[in-house]
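Hello,

Following up on my earlier ticket. Below are the two sequence lines again, exactly as submitted.
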Amino acid sequence: MAVRRIELMLCTGTGCVAGGAFRIYETLEKEIQKQGLEKEISVIITGCNGFCGQGPLMVVQPDEIFYGFLTPEDIPFLVQEHLLKGRPVKKLMFTPPEKKEPVPLLSEIPFFKKQMLVVLRNKGIIDPEKIDDYIARDGYTALEKVLSSMTPDDVIDEITRSGLRGRGGGGFPTGTKWKICRTEQKTPKYIICNCDEGDPGAYMDRSVFETDPHTVIEGMIIGAYAIGASHAYIYARTEYPLAIKRMDLAISHARDYGLLGKNILGTGFSFNLEIREGSGAFVCGEETSLIHSIEGKGPEPRQRPPFPAQLGIWDCPTVINNVETWANVPVIINRGADWFSKLGTETSKGTKIFSLVGKINNTGLIEVPMGITLREIVYDIGGGIPYDKKFKAVQTGGPSGGCMPDSMIDVPIDYESLTEAGSMMGSGGMIVMDEDICMVDVAKFFIQFTNDESCGKCTTCRDGSEALYEILTNITNGDGKEGDLEFLDEVGNAVKDASMCGLGTTLPNPVLSTLKYFRDEYEAHIKEKRCPALVCKNLIKYYILPEKCTGCKLCLKNCPPDAIKGELKHVHIIDQSKCTKCGTCLDVCPPKVSAIIKVTGKEMENITGIEEPYPVKRRKK
Amino acid sequence: MAQLTLDELRKKRKEAKKEIYLREGKYKSKIIVHMGTCGIAAGAREIVSAFLGEIEILTDKDVMLTTSGCAGLCSMEPMATVELLNSPSVKYGNLTTDKARRIFKEHILGGNIVTDYAIGIGSEKGG
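Thanks for your patience. The regenerated structure is below:
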């Protein structure tokens, strides 16, 4: 291929694709042709760039200029100004919320500055659908090293010394797991890559597949060599079409190159890999359920021990690791256990990918060294909370995790500190919440999710989650009573102690952690029938402040159940018997007027909405 | 595609590296061609092509070619600025494709400023 002077690294992760990245791709190609630049400039499709909140986005290389929120309409101007005339387009660059001037360079945007890319080292640099791009970035050098100069025991030793721990949530030392499996007598042995990522708000594994599928494949080949396996499964959710497509393509390219199959690279080692798609049952992320699902059985977990490393799929020893764990392996082999073990904290080494979502300015996928504090993640990388709201909590680890309050914002993040806080690392979902979030409501949401997803095998999990959900529903409906909190605590702990698999033992975490840190909110709901965050519908009322209402009829026209009475220049009244509390009136009331408020608790008593509209008094300007 | 051996994979990697150099940001020198309307009218597009042609035959592609807007000296277009690592930038004016190739060989590769075409050393100070 001829040399080019510019490459446009267009993000085509699922987020940007949903935002129209492929339409932008077509427009770019068309405009580049139109300006006659097709020999000098090419558009490269990359996996997730990480700054999903800015998508669709692209980075212009070699200038390293970052453009976000692109639309096809922006492209003609962009191509003419930047690509032809060399004048970067300011209005499409990223401007931090508190600043006026945009930050042109990717490396200077705070979101990227504090990150450390190990697993995602190729993000935004390679085209995930081209194996040559991965090879150019020293891809498969670790495999070369392993096959030509290391024994399986050397490999296991290196991984053990690196301190790598499972990234799927449990945090079991990877090297130890491999060693257990290697010493088992029974053959054949299998390995599995767990990409059944079911946590709401988490998309780390999907993005690794979409961004750099070969790093997972390379890690798995190395793992297979180490434990003596010849066959592997990748278990991925069928809801991840793009990830599966790219992984499928990567497998066939690797096979073409002789990196999979018989006699890999002429070294005599043989190994094969296939994808199995799961239909999205949350419990399939649990390793024994996952194995049952591949075997074609009902996805129910079983008692451990024996652990899968001893007795796994088809009753053979099986190493099952998460996507991110596998993706770390090539880097550890290449750069060495000593290098890796210097990253992170005493007990948690390396980096961790988190998906940073919720009430945060910079939504996206981040990779940070273990031991970073929540404050650095939320404020430095995440850019803080939108609209200057107050930070309230971070929910880590998805439905199995817990909420960390602002008092824990300076705790260094690693496996132990999160567990100590009553949460867990989980696979890395991080949901940021601000003052407008009701913690009881959050707990209810997660319990509803796990209650739905419980496979029903253990009574404690099946009925316990039901009981927790019922009580939480009562509390949020204003029907909470004395003793509810003690009951939640007791049932929660019973579910935790008596359930068999990870789903049951962790599902009470959202309730227990919010009870621990936000007990006052629960009490306000029960004793004062008050929702401090003004969320729970049965505990709030919408009210129009007579001294502020200008009688513009905007809320009246937009109210879906026609619950607002009024006429032009008359103070509007919300008929509380008709109000469904959808909040539309609050959204449409002009910010300058801001006449609509939510009230809760005692303040609701005198608001009935039976009075009639009356003329607006003239106010001094 | 035939299956690769270890050596063939290494060879492939060497080839593949040439394709992605733009994205890795490893440069020793930088050429900026000024592409304002004046520059384009005076033939800056051909200058870009000439530089690209030279980069193409390099084994180590550590030269970055970029464009920028009008440099303010429209009568001297087409113009280009050459920056070598750790030395002041040099502006060249009234370029032709032949001049561009000579600058590439003598200045970028050889490290010697082509005084025949240079119109200034260093950049204007920002206000």
